[in-house]
Amino acid sequence: MTSVRIEQIELRHISMPLVAPFETSFGSESEREGLIVTLRGDGLTGWGEVVASHAPGYSPETAQTEWHILHDFIIPEVLGKEFADVEGLEAAYRSVRGHPMAKAGIQAALYDLLAKAQGVSLQKMLGGSGETVKVGVSVGIQPGTEALVERVRAYLAEGYRRIKIKIKPGRDVADAEAVRKAFPDILLQVDANSAYTLADAGAIEAMDDLNLLLIEQPLAEDDIFDHAKLQSRLKTAICLDESIHSARHARWAQELGACRIINIKPGRVGGLREAARIHDFCAEHGIPVWCGGMLETGIGRAANVALASLPNFKLPGDISASDRYWKEDIVEPAFALNQDGTLTVPTGPGIGVTVREALLEQATIRKEIYRPTGARVVTFPGLRKSP
Ligand code: OSB
Ligand code: MG
After folding, report:
1. 207 CA to middle of ligand 1, Å?
2. Displacement of CA 284 from its chain's centroid (Å)
3. Is 265 known to be catalytic?
4. Tens digit of each residue's pLDDT (9 = 90 or more) over 243-284
5. For this structure, is 103 an active site residue?
6. Ligand 1 neighbour 192 (Cβ under 6 A)
7. Among residues 350, 370, 377, which one has the least CA distance to residue 81?
8. In this structure, are residues 99 and 66 in contact, taking their beta carbons and an 8 Å threshold?
9. Is residue 289 within 8 Å of residue 279, measured between CB atoms?
10. 294 C-beta closer than 6 A to ligand 1
11. In order of start, what are the domains of the chain with their CATH numbers?
């Protein structure tokens, strides 16, 4: 088995302007912050993305907390060591509780590095297959219902075959009804990002007759229990996102009947390895899954596309083309939407796309390089505040 020694690690805090602000029930972002992890060894380079953003709105992590956890706790356990598989990496940071996004980012970089060392694609390494994956688009909360319908119309014209709209109390039933009325036959789903409680779930029940594919995470992020109560009142499938952090949580949700579908995001569950474990559990128990998104750059997107090619990823993922997020993506080739509403899975070694390092450097607001002999700090202008 091929193993690689980690001779150098680079950590970058990046900030990239989105083509349009993205609004959810927990906030709005127009600059996407995150971290990029680079692992170097045996003349090869592995890339991974930490999907935490500027604020702890979706989950407790932020780019800065994950920087701290990587810098002070994870990188010291990894630097200079030799890894033959990602399970070895999971063992190396076992003493670090939580912080799935930091772990997922460095794990993705190791997957890329190991796949390159073995000369195989990430898709193959993860056990995926097929040339393309079905994708959809996640539409943020718009200034008004009419603007939303027009936004959806534009995405459909671009070729997206599945639409997800973000909802929150006060911007739910009327928005969903308007989109359904304008486009009676499209694959449509809604995502509440935990904005409701059982007590105010009337709005959720009011959407039960809109022929939605699923209703994503209506209730609290830590509450699989109440989701089970709500699911029993609905015809529409509940899909859990924020509530599922592990294959164990997936089992709880399945045993309780808290959802019928699961959204898998490598960042939320601590990495591609746990994502695959959740996939396998769900496949055995008849729960279809799909790949969620965190407004990734091309680095995270490449890994998501590979993951989404596993067999039980039955529904279109939140893995849109590069131009839905960025004027210029930091990988080439950028991800482009095929006419049939799919993205093509890269076939080259590892993530199968090339990082545009000059562009990445421009997006970098802080960088540190770690070598077994001691860290070298490179200072950048400092942290810009996200507007
Ligand atoms: O809940 O799925 C979510 C983006 C940031 C945080 C949470 C979510 C999202 C999305 C965007 O819906 C999906 C994408 O990357 O296109
Ligand atoms: Mg979601």
Report:
1. 21
2. 23
3. yes
4. 999 999 999 999 999 999 999 999 999 999 999 999 999 999
5. no
6. no
7. 370
8. yes
9. yes
10. yes
11. 4-120+354-379 (3.30.390.10), 124-344 (3.20.20.120)
Are residues 353 and 333 in contact, defined by beta-carbon separation less than 8 angstroms?
yes
> From the alpha carbon of 57, which atom of ligand 1 is closest?
6
Residue with tokens 């694959």, as numbered in its chain = 187
Q: Is the CB of 295 under 6 A from ligand 1?
A: yes
Q: Residue 287 pLDDT more than 50?
A: yes
User: What is the rounded CA–CA span in Å between residue 191 and residue 197?
Assistant: 14
Q: Is 58 in the pocket of ligand 1 (CB under 6 A)?
A: yes
Residue closest by Cα to atom 4 of ligand 1: 294
In contact, 212 and 184? CB cutoff 8 Å: no
Nearest CA residue ID for atom 13, ligand 1: 293
Regarding the beta carbon of 298 and ligand 1, being less than 6 Å apart is answered: no
* Calpha distance 276→182 (Å, rounded): 37
- Beta-ladder partners of 49: 36
| From 295, 304, 324, 329, mutation site for ligand 1 pocket: most ligand atoms within 8 A of C-beta | 295
- The CA distance from 21 to 44, in Å, is 36
Closest CA to 301 of 222, 381, 374, 355: 355
Mind giving me the DSSP string for 117-133?
HHT-BHHHHHT--SSEE
Catalytic one of 134, 166, 168, 367: 166
pLDDT tens for each residue of 99-116: 999 999 999 999 999 999
> What is the per-residue burial (b if ≥16 Cβ within 10 Å, else e) of 142-164?
beeeeebbebbeebbeebbbbbb
Residue 184 has φ and ψ, to the nearest 5°, of -60, -25
CA angle 66, 71, 76 (to 5 degrees): 130
Q: How confident is the model at residue 133 (pLDDT cuts 50, 70, 90)?
A: very high
Count of beta carbons in the 10 Å neighbourhood of residue 336: 11
Handedness of CA 308, 254, 90, 270 (dihedral sign): positive
Measured in Å, residue 215 CA sits from the centre of ligand 2 at 10
